[in-house]
Amino acid sequence: MDLLDGSGLRFPADQVARMMVGTGARSGPLYRQLSDSLAELIDRGELPPSAVLPPERALATALTVSRTTVVAAYQALRESGRLERRQGSGTRVRADRGRETVSNSLLAGDHAASQFLDGPLATIDFATAALPSLDLVADVASSLTRDDYLRLTSSHHGYHLRGLTALRERIARWYSDGGVPTTPEEILITSGAQQALELVARGCLHPGDGVIVEQPTYRGALEAFSRTGSRLRPVRADEDGLDVRSLETLLRTGSPRLVYVQAAVHNPTGAVLSEDRRQRLARLVDQHEFVLVDDTSLAGTGFAEGPGTPALGSHERIVTIGSMSKLFWGGLRLGWIRAVPQVVSRLAQVRGITDLGSSLVAQEVAVRLLDHSSAASAERRSTLPGGLRTLTDLLATQLPDWTWQQPRGGASLWVRLPQGDATHLAQLALRYGVALLPGSVFSADGSTDNHTRLPFALPPATLHSGITRLAQAWQTYLERGAVDVTVTSTIT
């Protein structure tokens, strides 16, 4: 986004379209749905005072509506006192809506956490790919007694930057049992894998550093690296994961500071890095001076039984990120970093600037849950492929021209549209009651907008209803293009 007059931010049309996912009303005149959605973003501060909105024609194209609809929506917002039009500088959020407490640059709501800000969407939620909790989480958590809590609270003041010793020991033993010798000093507990990524980005990168990422890749990683001012360069990934040959070619043209990969199970494609590529990638770490960050958040969700630990190795420049969220439950908010002790110490210091440690109660539950990791993986293997079959059967019947890369794990399907782009389709899908993420958000250069990610860890009835609505939206998209479509949703 470009700064204007030192205060206003220019919001491109496609970004505004993505920010609108899950906001506003879902019935009534289309211009009113649009104005309500923008009003919600303005009132929440995600379109802050002095923000410059896209021209009517550009926003109409991004939303797949007529320019008349956008003109009417902007007029309604001007009448309500939210927008103002300045000659020669376009349409802006009114500058006198109160002084900003937080920097404008931090309030642009097109980010990976947007879908979690306001609880469940009123629509069918295909925008997130979170997995449901396993029953054993409740079983294990409820097994803690008062004596367990007394022991925990009486033995420690509650602040521990590195994490509960027992949990670090348990994770270290898990890696060691899997063939990667690890000590507790090589483990840093974090409040989820996203915090782990943020710590690695802040601890390892400076503005202008080169970062190589897969294409596509996890949206949260792109945001974490971008916030450091790093230069992102994509490298192709396919059904076998990161294309290591392409990476080798890229390494000859420059020396990146960091390479980010998802070797265990990839988000959003569900690919698993082949054994040959794993070995070649490990050799590249020896041959070049870059930090290899291996995000294994989806480890344990593979459809085939794999090795005990997914770590690529224990090289001094390999940093492994792990998580409890996908295998067990996202509500635990626990992840970890595995690295050499010097790196762990440095990242613990970085963490201490904003956070004094993760919940010790959740960590105590995690210690016990890890004793059930094999059972948890087996349960994911028994349930996730069934959801995938349901989704692909529905797509084959209702959207037969859509194609996909067959995943080998995870909870999402990476789908290619036969024509058009997912940013525009996502806006039409909202009018049919389905929240959808365009593939461009999973790309360093936005070039994957002919794809979308569809979750399949949902009840069959929800998948059936969602794909039926999505097929209706797709048909409208093909037939009407950028012409107004009036749809009254019946969302249940």
UniProtKB/TrEMBL annotation:
SMART domains: HTH_GNTR. InterPro entries: Aminotransferase_I/II_large, HTH_trans_reg/aminotransferase, PyrdxlP-dep_Trfase, PyrdxlP-dep_Trfase_major, PyrdxlP-dep_Trfase_small, Tscrpt_reg_HTH_GntR, WH-like_DNA-bd_sf, WH_DNA-bd_sf. The keyword Cytoplasm does not apply. Pfam families: Aminotran_1_2 (PF00155), GntR (PF00392). One of its GO terms (molecular function) is DNA-binding transcription factor activity. Residues 28-96 form the HTH gntR-type domain. Keywords: DNA-binding, Pyridoxal phosphate, Transcription, Transcription regulation. Coiled coil: none annotated. The keyword Phosphoprotein does not apply. CDD domains: AAT_like, WHTH_GntR. In the C-terminal section; belongs to the class-I pyridoxal-phosphate-dependent aminotransferase family. This is DNA-binding transcriptional MocR family regulator.
